[in-house]
Amino acid sequence: MQTHGNQPSTTHSERDRPAAPYPSWGEIAGYVVLASGLCWLVIAPAMLGFIDADVAPALVPVAQLTPLLAALVFVRVLRPGRARDLLALRWNRSGRWAATGVGILMVIGAVQLVSGLLLGWRPRPAAEILTAASVVLPLLVLQAAFAVGEETGWRGWLLSRTRHLGFPAAAAISAVAWTLWHLPALTFLPDPVSAESAAYLLGIASWAPLLVVLRLVSGSVWPPVLVHGAINSVRVFLLQSVADSGGVDWRIEALGWMLWLLAAVLLARHGHVGSAHHKASETGRVL
């Protein structure tokens, strides 16, 4: 963004503020409803048995695009600013914050793994671990690519339209919306009403605040994209491929939730998310 006269240069946090006027709660709810409705629409053929169960997982990457599609509809209809800014597509310092996010994920996963082993998890055979480890990096790249649609919607558009509420509120909205949007995924589980389903949804809610912080401190959606991909690859490897928990271990699940939320709070303080919000609000700039 260019400046005029003697105005100070614009920081990434100022470029990343939502357009004025601030959105209504109706707009926020409408976006969540549209993104979730589109997701249900994509998954419906599998839920209704119109396609074979072996083919149904192929719908997931399509469903992951629905938050972006909903965001593009809102950008087009409301025209509150440039799509690049509202979806947080700027690169900024994404490399540094992406590495930070993946590092945090690996530490949390390692702590959970070691704790699980101490509490009785059974290590898997070395050959199985090595085989799984060999595909972690390709899976990370693939899962990050699949995550673009979700993150440009939830940590892109939705956060652009809610960050003026402050970090706690924006993180809570992101967590609730993202969790509700994942409800159709339960249809792919053997028992949609089970401990596994509950742990899955609670895990999603616990990851959202850190992804929100990464977007806020970087001013970019790309760190959340990479960490989202790492959740579905690196975290899965650490907690499922290295050892067998024998099912949902609520002690380790709860430990993970607390560590993810703690990491989000500490990173928010380190990145001065609050002061960045106030600074952006006081400039009076728009996208």
Please specify the SSE layout and strand pairing.
Elements (H helix, E strand, L loop, with lengths): L11 H4 L9 H23 L11 H5 L2 H13 L4 H4 L7 H25 L3 E2 L2 H9 L1 H25 L6 H15 L13 H24 L3 H20 L1 E2 L5 H21 L2 H11 L4
Antiparallel strand pairs: 1-2
Helix pairs in contact: 2-4, 2-9, 4-8, 6-10, 6-11, 6-12, 8-9, 8-11, 9-10, 10-11, 10-12
Spell out the helices and strands N to C: HHHHHHEHHHHHEHH
Structural class: mainly alpha
Average of per-residue pLDDT values = 88
| End-to-end separation | 8 Å
What proportion of the residues form beta strands (DSSP E)? under 5%
Read across the widest sheet, the strand sequence of neighbours is 1-2
Shape: globular
Give the helix level as a range of percent.
55-70%
Radius of gyration from the CA trace?
Answer: 20 Å
Unreliably modeled segments:
1-20, 275-287
